[in-house]
Amino acid sequence: GIIGTGKFGSGLVAQLAQMRGMEASVIAELDVERAKHAYTAAGRLVADDLRVVRTVGQMNDAIRAGKRAIVEDGKLLAQSDLIDVVVEATGSPEVGARMAYHTLQHKKHLVMVNVEADVTVGPLLRRMADAAGVVYTLVDGDQPGCTMNMIEWARTLGFEIVAAGRGTILYPDDPQGTPDNAAARYGFDAETIERRHINLKMYNSFRDGTKAQVEMTALANAAALVGKAFAYLV
């Protein structure tokens, strides 16, 4: 089950559509049309394959029938016995914390795309997951997961990791940037923003150093390098 179909969530749905052995059975999304687009954009599903549902029972019926379910309330995903893993990809720290807490209460494996929620309550969520006997993990394929892969590779070879970080280009006008002018600074037109489901608040944080610092905080926690992880701004 995937909560949120922004840029990352919709991309994950498209990728899973090409894979064997794993299915995005349910999407939780307030914008139902966006969820429908995420399912059909990969080219494997048509509108008749989708079911917009409101209860756990309706969701389970759709999954058993081989359909894909769309629901507005993300908390319903964790209540289904047919869902093994929940991916939290809303991008909102407050919503992400609530969804994650509810998911772990129902003893479901949780993949956290929402790094802002992770740096806020991740240690608590990890302890909840351990107590429930399930997995709590950050997502691969993005920062800080890719850096963590390199750390684990080096440790497997027997090396001691003393520092980890990433480079971020900081332009002179970035500290004054706001979400309102982020599109112009990136050169995005309205069609690109709509097609790629771009969150301008998030993209603004990419440029002012905020996102890099948040991601490195998550990496520090995951790699037990607290006080040693850093973001290098040039």
Major sheet: size, sense and barrel closure?
7 strands, parallel
Mean pLDDT: 91
Proportion in helices: 40-55%
Number of helices: 10
Total E-strand runs: 9
Determine the N-to-C terminus distance.
Answer: 39 Å
**Class computed from helices, strands and strand pairing:** alpha/beta
Morphology:
globular
Strand order of the largest sheet: 3-4-2-1-5-6-7
Order of helices and strands: EHEHEHEEHEHEHEHHHHE
Radius of gyration: 19 Å
Beta-strand residue fraction: 5-15%
**Unreliable runs, pLDDT <50, ≥5 residues?**
none
Features:
14% strand; seven-stranded parallel β-sheet; 234 residues; 10 helices; two-stranded parallel ribbon; alpha/beta
Write the layout of secondary structure elements.
Layout lengths: L1 E2 L3 H10 L9 E3 L3 H9 L9 E3 L3 H9 L3 E4 L13 E4 L4 H13 L3 E4 L2 H18 L3 E3 L6 H12 L7 E5 L10 H8 L3 H6 L4 H8 L2 H14 L5 E5 L1
Parallel strand pairs: 1-2, 1-5, 2-4, 3-4, 5-6, 6-7, 8-9
Structure description:
With 234 residues, this protein is an alpha/beta fold. It is 46% helix and 14% strand. It has helices spanning 7-16, 32-40, 56-64, 93-105, 115-132, 145-156, 179-186, 190-195, 200-207, 210-223; strands at 2-3, 26-28, 50-52, 68-71, 85-88, 109-112, 136-138, 164-168, 229-233. Strand 3, helix 3 (56-64) and strand 4 form a beta-alpha-beta unit. The model has no long low-confidence stretch (mean pLDDT 91).
